[in-house]
Prior knowledge:
10 helices, 40% helix, 16% strand, 2 domains, 291 residues, globular, Rossmann fold, alpha/beta
Amino acid sequence: MVILDGKKTSNDLKDEIAIAVAKRRSEGKKIPHLAAILVGTDGASMTYVNSKVKSCEKVGFNSTLIDLPEDTTEDQLLNEIDDLNKDNDIDGFIVQLPLPKQIDEQKVLMAVDPNKDVDGFHPVNVGKMTLDLPTFLPATPYGIMELLKRYKVETSGKNVVVIGRSHIVGRPMSILLSQKRDVGNATVTLVHSRTKNLEEITKEADIIVAALGKAEFLTGDMVKDGVTIIDVGITRVKDDSKKRGYRLAGDVDFESVSKKAGFITPVPGGVGPMTIAMLLKNTLLACENRD
């Protein structure tokens, strides 16, 4: 059983990006600049955004954090987005989700300039991805593809099951793995809450991407020997034995599934670090596109 180490792989990627940034600096070219908008005080979002800022420092990017209060109106947020769209020094930016209930997330994502949409969520970029045209890939699926590539996990002709149909992970993952690309050419089944006989389907899978947000949903009796497991979920599970009162669990019951897996991502330290690394890679691409 091989652990797909997202922490190590993301650090390798950051080192590669840092070299590219240093080369740009030595050639007098523009230094990539990533901005993030954070609305409110959601703990997980704050941790994630701060991690992005630190990662920018590590690779030599410029970064800007726009911190807005919980009661920010939709119009105020749209004005901030408009300012970033027009700011020539900003190469890419993200609006951290989830947003407070008074703000329409879809309207916000539509307002981001597709050329600065380094999260890859704008319909223009989603459409390009679907048609296999050059574009920003959504950071989490992009990170998963990179992990599979670097660990030389064979996907061509394999039976892949993606659990979860979100626009952020499940749906793009199913599209990317089915396309003609180095990591792709798989036969993909997308399953969800209404799927019947789910266990029969997962038992036939060579590769499973679990992205449904339900702690330890996938268990050892639902998979076959030698399966590759990509665990996208991360949930706080109450645990009084821990000092902080909880532990972090993925969508996969690691204890039982790892006994059968050929490759598996840990939680934490698997997919999560890759997401940030690919966001940086998209920002570097955005900067290069503007050269």
